[in-house]
Amino acid sequence: MIPAARLAAAAELLDLIGAAATPAEQHIGSYFRNRRYAGSKDRRWVTEFVYRALRRQGELDWAALEAGLEPSPRSRCFLSLILFEDVAPETLATSWFGGPHGLAEPSPEEAAALATAATLDLSAMPAEAAGNFPIWLSDKIIEQYGDEAGVIMAAYGSRAPVTLRVNTLKATREDILATLQEEGVEADLTTVSPDGITLKSRVNLSRHPLLEGGLIELQDEAAQISARLAEAQPGMTVIDFCAGGGGKSLAMAATMAHAGMIHAFDTEARRMRDIAGRARRAGVSLIEPLAIAGDETDNEVFAPLIGCIDRVFVDAPCSGSGTWRRQPDQKWKLTPERLDELVALQADILARAAPLVAPGGRLIYATCSILGCENDAQVDAFLSIHPEFRLLPVRDLWESAGLDGGWAQDVLSLTPTEGGADGFFTAVLEKRVTSE
Ligand SMILES: C[S@@+](CC[C@H](N)C(=O)[O-])C[C@H]1O[C@@H](n2cnc3c(N)ncnc32)[C@H](O)[C@@H]1O
């Protein structure tokens, strides 16, 4: 593809991504499936260009408005070239526009605005634009994190690492690291999770024998830490209440040394489609997936389990704000109304999950969010109406959960840092043996 066609593809994708809730990754996948003429270099260029425009949309839209342009996928494409690649506005037309597959050439007014954009003083950009978050969200983050907010928001400008969880039922982490290194893959052991390996070079592992053989799973280190904090042990009965594709179930099956039982529930059967195959590859047969309704009709399914479960893991549906380095489009799509709906849903799920926990058993509440309303506030609200539960400080569980490095707080509360794990939250609640 010539540069003008690549740029037009990026603009079309930004349009599609902005118009529908579907994640950017899916739009990009189906876009290229229908355009076989695009080679791997074209796909990589367009994908990286689109992701950068999504990550840095705040800066691009500020520049558009300053220069007198309406923010749009088209303006974001022009301005990415000018601001991030130092393309001179007068040379844009010679190689980046026109032709049968290119964007329409800039009008004289647009060309004048682009020339203005090239002269903007970027150091004058207000913090909310430079933070690349919608204003209502950056206000929330600043209110919650104070002086740290700028660093946290800036971390979303970088790429998230690719991290593997080694299936300790089948291999050791050291052996897998050695195998990867023999293949020329640069990788390191994760520093907190005892099961993880972070890749330092970009490799496509989707058809890798280690993955197909169930020796590894793709899982961020934060999710691995969270699953470990459940301290699911051999012989226990566990419920993974929001199981999705089974990432936490598989991680818990490993700490259970494949002895015991995991009920994997989810209201969306299609999300659980992969559990059987992943479990088979991992050599795990203790996971029983079951689609639930998410309302009182589940009572019949739950009845025999009430008060019997050692660990109930609630990996709740959430804003996903801890993972927005991977899905930068989602931060522009979340609305205050949707966030309120999610908070209500999380409270409802906790209320349904709580009765299942056995006396002395644990309810683990996790989100991949950095927002207090989905995390600490949710747990506080739960504890205020469920005196039969108490918070087990995460710092006291750290060592027995096999985690390295130590932790000083009551809950696990991670924000993304440059090159590090995703933002994640976990609180561990124990059901009292005798209720007062
Ligand atoms: C964060 S995802 C789970 C990810 C999964 N645990 C993993 O590790 O791969 C949240 C899941 O909650 C499910 N969900 C939404 N509403 C639910 C409800 N009322 N009860 C149970 N699951 C629900 C969603 O379908 C989604 O799969």
Give the name of the CATH superfamily of the largest domain: Vaccinia Virus protein VP39
Per CATH, the class of the largest domain reads: Alpha Beta
Count every helix, treating DSSP H or I runs of 4 or more residues as helices: 20
Mean pLDDT reading: 94
For the largest beta-sheet, the strand count, sense and barrel status come to: 8 strands, mixed
| CATH architecture label name of the largest domain | 3-Layer(aba) Sandwich
Q: What distance separates the N and C termini?
A: 70 Å
- Beta strand count: 12
Bin the helical content. Answer: 40-55%
Strand content: 5-15%
Structural class: alpha/beta
Stretches where pLDDT is under 50 for at least 5 consecutive residues are none
Organism: Sneathiella litorea
Pfam families: Methyltr_RsmB-F, RsmF-B_ferredox
InterPro entries: MeTrfase_RsmB-F_NOP2_cat, MeTrfase_RsmB-F_NOP2_dom, RCMT, RsmB-like_ferredoxin, SAM-dependent_MTases_sf
Family: Belongs to the class I-like SAM-binding methyltransferase superfamily. RsmB/NOP family.
Record the SSE blueprint.
Elements: H1 3-19, H2 24-33, H3 40-55, H4 57-67, H5 73-84, H6 89-95, H7 108-117, H8 127-130, H9 135-145, H10 149-155, E1 162-166, H11 173-182, E2 187-189, E3 196-199, H12 209-212, E4 216-218, H13 221-229, E5 236-240, H14 247-255, E6 260-266, H15 275-282, E7 287-291, H16 299-302, E8 309-315, H17 328-333, H18 336-353, E9 357-367, H19 376-385, E10 389-392, H20 394-397, E11 412-414, E12 424-431
Parallel strand pairs: 5-6, 5-8, 6-7, 8-9
Antiparallel strand pairs: 1-3, 1-4, 2-3, 9-12, 10-12, 11-12
Helix pairs in contact: 1-3, 1-5, 4-5, 4-7, 13-14
